[in-house]
Amino acid sequence: MTVEEFLSALQKEVEGYNKIIATENGDWIVKGFIDIYKKIYTITIDTKVVSKVLEILLEPSLRAFAGKNNLSIEVPAQQNHYPDFTFISKQGGKKFAVDIKSGFTEDGKKLKNKMTLGSYTGYFRDRVSTKSSKYPYSDYECHLVLGVIYAQSPEDPNKKNIYSIDELNKIVSVIRDFKFFVQPKYKVASDAVGSGNTKNIGSIQDIKKIMNGEGIFAILGEEVYNDYWMFYLNRDMAKKLDMPRPYTNLKTYLVYKQRGTDVLAEHKEEIEQLTEEDDFETENGEQDDE
User: Fold this and answer.
1) pLDDT per residue over 202-261, tens digit each?
2) What are 86's strand-pairing partners?
3) Which CATH number fits domain 3-246: 3.40.309.10, 3.90.870.30, 3.40.250.10, 3.40.600.10?
4) Residue 147: partners with Cβ closer than 8 Å, 6 or more residues away
5) Among 91, 197, 220, 200, which Cα is nearest to 145's?
6) Strands 39-42, 162-164: parallel, antiparallel or unpaired by DSSP?
7) Which long-range contacts (CB under 8 A, 24 or more apart) does 214-219 make?
8) pLDDT digit string (tens) for 145-196?
9) 74 to each of 60, 62, 82, 126, 250, how far by Cα in Å?
10) Which of 208, 192, 178, 199 has the alpha carbon at shortest distance from 252?
11) Bridge-partner residues for 151, per DSSP?
12) What's the pLDDT at 288?
């Protein structure tokens, strides 16, 4: 299975996922958590809690998807390890990484906050390491986001926090109106962190562009995306290294990248006139220094 085939199959798969998690009216089927005394505790709208419950709801369907497409599926043994799901082709052993991400909207056009698309340090930079990753980052053919965008019900929609099982129909779903998408991670990434001074890549916020995979790095390409985020430093990282931040966004990244290329361009003729003997001496000099 190629990357294109896997992406297309998963995009088609999620088209029917509204039926799995929502009622005909668009309300979330999850009302809360129930204990052995049949008391229901209403669920919070905290995005981390919502994302985890969504992951639990979708896992059976993703396992069925794997079975239909001659894939095996693996989940990380530890929480917060990358990715949420590893799909492995039973013919050839190709691996595909899928992370579930979610975000909410107030106007249907833009996310209220950026989705966090994973770390730009650790496994992202050391791509042969299995620290915090199911397999080395470089082992995966692609890195996809299975995203869920939803609307929140009014703040504190329920009059109380605990209900009896007989009051189930009185509980208002805290989220509704779901939209699913599957896109390569770099195509929905922005040039800014997810929130604050974190070490997570932030998504773009325009919902139409997210659904279609039309972020800035979709234009620039995955190579630029990798280079940008592999060498990005937040304030704390730069302070620890006792150096200024090389760039903070794509505009300053462009300036940063042009510094070296401008100097090389100015001396293009001299560089091209270097003889094979010059190259040989340079190489030997580097070896002698070792």
Assistant:
1) 999 999 999 999 999 999 999 999 999 999 988 888 888 888 889 999 999 999 988 877
2) 74, 97
3) 3.40.600.10
4) 100, 101, 102, 103, 115, 180, 181, 182, 183, 188, 210
5) 200
6) antiparallel
7) 214/187, 215/186, 215/187, 215/188, 215/189, 215/190, 216/190, 216/191, 216/250, 217/186, 217/187, 217/189, 217/191, 218/186, 218/187
8) 999 999 988 766 666 789 999 999 888 898 999 999 999 999 999 999 987 6
9) 12, 11, 11, 22, 35
10) 192
11) 105, 176
12) 42
Write out the two tokens for 247: 């760039």
The position carrying tokens 């990380």 is 76
Alpha carbon 135 to chain centroid, angstroms: 16
Q: Tell me how many degrees the CA angle 213-219-222 measures, rounded to the nearest 5.
A: 85
Q: Are 171 and 40 in contact (CB under 8 A)?
A: yes
Domain boundaries along the sequence of the chain: 3-246, 256-290
Residues with a catalytic annotation lie at 84, 99, 101
Q: Which of 116, 124, 132, 131 is nearest to 48 (CA)?
A: 116
